[in-house]
Amino acid sequence: MERISTGIKDLDMMMENGYPSNHTILITGTTGSGKTILGLHYINQACRDGKKCFVIATEEDQEDLIAQSESFGMQLSEYFKDKRLGIDRVFDERTEYIKGIMAHHVADIDELQSDIIGLLDRIPKDTEIVLIDNIGVFTLNMSVNEFRAQFDTLIRGLAKKKLSSVIIMDSASNERMGGIAAYSVYGVIVTSIKDDPYTNKMGRTIRILKIRNTKIPIDPIGFDITSKGIVLIK
Ligand SMILES: Nc1ncnc2c1ncn2[C@@H]1O[C@H](COP(=O)(O)OP(=O)(O)O)[C@@H](O)[C@H]1O
Ligand SMILES: [Mg+2]
After folding, report:
1. Which ligand 1 atom is nearest residue 191's CA?
2. Burial of 119 from C-beta contacts in 10 A (0-12 / 13-18 / 19+)
3. Which residue from 33, 37, 70 has its CB within 8 A of the most atoms of ligand 1, so it is best to mutate?
4. Which of 154, 183, 186, 210 sits at a 20 to 30 Å CA gap from 198?
């Protein structure tokens, strides 16, 4: 099976050299646990490898995303300039839309952006690698059934386009949606910040919950966030 690097060599080695190509991996975890940074490693490496990448960021604008990556020495601004990397403006659109609704005192802010299937049309034709961060914002007013229908359609659409995708979903939304996002994806990674009972200190971990067709470790993997981004603790 062909593989795409996670962007972290030590992590690749724990899943037979990376995420399976042409499939979707779900990353879930609490706020600040390292989901976005894990996603940035993936995109940065794929750009370095000359692949066409596209990021749909719902919680940050382009500048913030690039600035965050640069704090880890990643070159996303260059890839963005030479068009290897596209960043969708869904964040700006969302904030503009909210401002519009507020200005006109329209009541149905509930209708706000619950179009998950529509994300498929935003991905440029020649894209190979996709990161969606954070799909949870689309689920605030959704029933579990509607989410399941839309999410499954998204996953099938991504597969049809032969895209290698990472979808991030904050754990609060994931739990609200009954954890069903995990069913239709090829793999699930969970990042967390937890109290380490041995050292009595807080520590970060990555758990590889499942990856189809792949041998994975059962134990959580400790990691730090450093000036180089995520570094696994040996
Ligand atoms: N340059 C950096 N050096 C060290 N830690 C950082 C740096 N940038 C961000 N972090 C840490 O990463 C955390 C955010 O990680 P992020 O991937 O954005 O979380 P999530 O997307 O899961 O909410 C911050 O709370 C901070 O602790
Ligand atoms: Mg994030």
Report:
1. 22
2. buried
3. 37
4. 210
37 CA closest ligand 1 atom index? 17
- Residue 64 CB–ligand 1 contact under 6 Å: no
- Contacts (Cβ under 8 Å, ≥6 apart) of 154: 116, 117, 119, 120
Superfamily for 3-232?
Answer: P-loop containing nucleotide triphosphate hydrolases (3.40.50.300)
Instruction: Judge contact between 32 and 193, C-beta under 8 A.
Output: yes
User: pTM here?
Assistant: 0.94
Size of the chain, expressed as the number of residues it contains = 234
